[in-house]
Amino acid sequence: MEIKTENLELEKKNPLALFYQFRELGLLFFIVILCIGVQLRNPSFLTGENILDMATNTSILVILALGMMIVLITRGIDLSIGAVIALSGMLTAQLVAANPSVNPFLCLLIGTVIGAFCGMIIGVLIAKVGLLPIIATLALMNIFRGLTFLVSDGEWVSSYQMSEGFVEIATGTFLGLNHLIWIAAIFCLVFFYFLNYTRTGRQIYAVGSNPQSAAVSGIKQGRILFLVYTITGGLSGLCGVLWVSKFASAQGDTASGYELTVIAACILGGVSIAGGSGKLAGVLLGAILLGILNNALPLLNVSPFWQNGIQGFIILLAVIVNAIVKRRVERTHLLRRAG
Q: What is d(CA 277, CA 224) in angstroms, rounded to the nearest whole number?
């Protein structure tokens, strides 16, 4: 049976498509206005060097947001990504400290495998055992974080213990751009193709849009859920290596609470926590907005005590506006159908 999802088929015929387009354009407009405002207050904001710094600092968030997006689309959530980052980063850093000559690409592969294994455990608990995603990932978050402290014995792996080649993974450049920017761009392209032009990508949206219809259509929901959590775990493991390479430090509390920032980027980008809805362009804009705020607020001499509060207010405002506009669009759609 042909799979028709809200994302790929229904939006073309549904007035709600206008809402999705408006949401992304509105977010882009807000980013432009914010940049202009910050530039007027601090002329160093839109310099080439600062823009590249923002892009570099946002790259890891973009990669993680891609994984969180497909989890949210399936009506799930993953609270363990921060702990997976810490665990994969610590194990890889310890490997580098013990074997300085290890190939940097092997480090990336090892970190990705560690993260994918963690994601597979979560996928089995959710898809096979039937645990709720928030319960499974919350439990595994604490387990993975505890393992990180256990294997490190509470000690750090510092920059002097890391080889130059390992640090170069996240600090080196290619054609004038940091390696992190290139890695994030590649993953964006891969995910764009995966979600829009593959059968599995369409099935991910179908499972989140209407699980009952997806089951009737013959979609193996357990396989899809297992896949999305494995992918997200793999991306988290990869980002653990990138994180440690970028900051030249591995510690037990690395990326503590970072999963909330990733979720915020997705929500700002219009990914619905009710599942079935979310676009890569929106997630990318959401991550960019958070990256701009992290860079702009210190330039405006905003107190660190206010920065988290301001970010939270902007996220809340975006969600409220999003809900109001969507409700009005849906009401208009129902009136048209009734007429």
A: 16
76: three-class secondary structure by DSSP: coil
pLDDT at 5: 44
- How does the average pLDDT of the chain come out, rounded? 86
Kind and range of the H or E run holding 174? strand 173-174
Kind and range of the H or E run holding 130:
none
| pLDDT tens-digit map of 67-94 | 999 999 999 999 999 999 999 999 999 9
Tell me the two tokens of residue 228.
Answer: 């999305």
Q: For residue 124, give both structure tokens.
A: 């089995």
CB 20 within 8 A of CB 278: no
How buried is 224 (Cβ within 10 angstroms: 0-12 exposed, 13-18 middle, 19+ buried)?
buried
| 95 Cβ contact partners less than 8 Å away, ≥ 6 residues apart | 102, 107, 110
Q: What are the tens digits of pLDDT across the range 260-292?
A: 999 989 988 888 887 877 889 889 999 999 999
pLDDT of residue 329: 62
CA 274 to chain centroid: 17
With 50 as the cut, is the pLDDT of residue 1 above it? no
Alpha helices in the chain, H assignment, sequence order? 11-13, 16-41, 48-73, 81-98, 104-124, 133-152, 164-171, 179-197, 199-209, 211-216, 221-247, 258-268, 280-299, 304-338
Question: Chain centroid to CA 76: how far?
Answer: 14
| CA atoms of 11 and 222, how far apart (whole Å) | 26
Q: Assess contact for 6 and 276: CB atoms under 8 A.
A: yes
DSSP string, 250-268: B-TTTTTTHHHHHHHHHHH
- Please tell me what DSSP assigns to residue 159: G
Q: Dump the DSSP string for 16-54.
A: HHHHHHHHHHHHHHHHHHHHHHHHHH-TTTTSHHHHHHH
